[in-house]
Amino acid sequence: MIQLFKDSRFTRFFISRTSANIADSIYSIVLLYFVQKSTSSVSFTSFTFTAISAASIFSFLLGPLVDRYSPSLLASISLFAQAILIMLVPFLIGDQYSSLIMILVLVFVASCFSMLFYPANNKMLPMLIRSPDRIVQANSMVASSDQIVNIGGYLLGASVILLVGMENTFFLASGLLLLSGFIYIQLKRQLDKSNISEVQEHEPQKQVSSYFAELKEGYTFVIRNAFLKVMLPFYALTNFAMSILIITVPALAVSYGSPIYYSLLYIAFFAGIFAGSGLINIMKKNGLVIALSWILMGVSLYLFAIAPVLWMKLSAVLMMGVFTGIINVLQTSMIQIITPTELMGRVMAFLHTLSNAALPLGALVGGMLSLRFPLESVLYISAMIIVGCGIILLFIRSVRQFQMPSEKEQKESAAGIKEPAIVEKLI
């Protein structure tokens, strides 16, 4: 994996993503904790999370932009816009609900810009790294480092809230986003130089293709690909279930009386994702591993719901993170390998929309359920949905036969010798 950092472009990509991830961690904890503390309402926290995640419903509209223009430039624009909007939040903090509504509006707009960031990032990685085997390594490295950053970010977020207050915490997050944006601008110069022929080759097509025709092209690829078509509904259902968990965590932290407990739960989860992202390098990379991890992720959530004390909840969250990390690395790597580079932006944006559209719905449903039932009962429902998804996947033969194509298989496929294993199994 150290070989990856010998490429200065990947190093810039890694550093800028890390800075943005730190900012996102700090921003997330201070925002949701502020809302929960101000309102003492799980329902209002669910509305805040809905405002954050609802923007993902429209991310598919940004796919053609990612495929037409430099992904690093679009990522920097996204980060600069988010930084400015987050910087405005401290000036609106107050006790009145009107201030909270204004903050929710800013949060939604910032989230709209963040939807441009993720497809651009996902397109950049296969542009930097061509080998399927190294793409898996790179995703494992990025996912592992993301979780280290998340652990530090959430711990730092709680510490900064206690030391300097919520307002200055928002300013810190904004500054880190600006830093990341400037690094992406430097990366753009390197990517443009190394991909000039590719951009020129597709330029005439971009001039004659309509925006909606390009949207349809990305959609058609998704619905015709067996792997994406089978797995997508299950990603959506799981995100629906996980959003219920997300809106309950701030309430637990407030009940314990400190944002530190909020941080500890997330730190345990991200530590688990870090471990799972590393374990994938020594595990089989197939659909059976994904299905089993799905079931065990749901079981871990059930254990979290029934755990009576904090250390047991932390252990359950740690387990859940391990299986989440395994699923995330395999999912992202498979999509990047089977998707043509010229379609990557549209495909990633479309998948992001479909899988994450369930997040605001889950947050709203979870908020309404929390008004009527205890939080433990709401979490039981979430756990059952995830376990059910895993069991169904386990009984789908084609899912069990999913295989990650190797570098050798991809070269043979490119030469017209043999189809990659994942295509051969599914089509």
Describe the 3D structure.
It comes from Paenibacillus nuruki. This is Major facilitator superfamily (MFS) profile domain-containing protein. Helix content is about 85%, strand content about 0%. It is mainly alpha-helical. It has helices at about 10-40, 40-55, 65-70, 70-90, 95-130, 130-165, 165-195, 195-210, 210-225, 225-255, 260-280, 285-305, 310-340, 345-355, 360-370, 375-395, 395-400, 405-415, 420-425. The chain has a single domain (about 10-190, about 210-425), classed as Up-down Bundle (Growth Hormone, Chain: A). It contains 19 helices and no strands.
Task: Give short descriptive properties of this protein.
single chain, 427 residues, mainly alpha, Growth Hormone, Chain: A, globular
